[in-house]
Design brief:
single chain; alpha/beta; seven-stranded mixed β-sheet
């Protein structure tokens, strides 16, 4: 009886939290579509079990905005090299990366976030777009805050090295 009641409470809490997540990715997709129209695939790598709500929001927003979504499951730090190899074997010319902030391996405080961003950028020319300041500080090439009132920040030199256009309204973060 207690487990059943707890399960119901957990489900209600998850549903209640969903609207808070809604819209987190809207502006990211709008900026990418406007600035890099050839980049129509978003790549997210995270522990899928731990980040279900964020992935649902990402999937819904990608579908609504006309983007393809590639999600890869990374559950343990020991699987990083294998996951990275699997991603590197793919054609990523049309992709950009979005970090799931809460992920313990590739999130804002992840153990491998900077390495992940650096390898995808230098070896495959894939930019990482941040939805939070923490993800930008972790090494993302572009920070797109959720509000139109907030300023876009870009690492212009890194973006130009990937032969991509820097968004017009972006401020160089160097």
């Amino acid at each position: 009886m207690l487990n059943h009641a707890f399960g119901r409470l957990a489900a209600i809490a998850a549903i209640a939290a969903a609207p808070a997540l809604a819209g987190d990715y809207d502006r990211i997709f709008d900026v990418v579509k406007e600035t890099w129209p050839a980049r129509d695939t978003v790549l997210a790598v995270c522990n899928m079990n731990d980040n279900q709500l964020a992935l649902l929001d990402l999937a819904e927003t990608a579908k609504t905005k006309g983007f393809s979504l590639m999600i890869m499951d990374l559950r343990a730090d020991k699987d990083f090299a294998r996951t990275l190899s699997g991603v590197m074997a793919r054609d990523l010319k049309r992709a950009f990366v979005v970090l799931i902030d809460e992920d313990t391996i590739l999130g804002v405080k992840g153990t491998r976030t900077n390495e992940w961003i650096t390898r995808l950028r230098t070896l495959k020319g894939v930019p990482t777009v941040a939805g939070s300041e923490g993800a930008f500080k972790a090494g993302a090439a572009l920070w797109v805050p959720a509000s139109d009132k907030d300023v876009l920040k870009a690492r212009k030199l890194e973006i130009e090295r990937m032969d991509l256009k820097v968004p017009a309204k972006a401020v160089d973060a160097k």
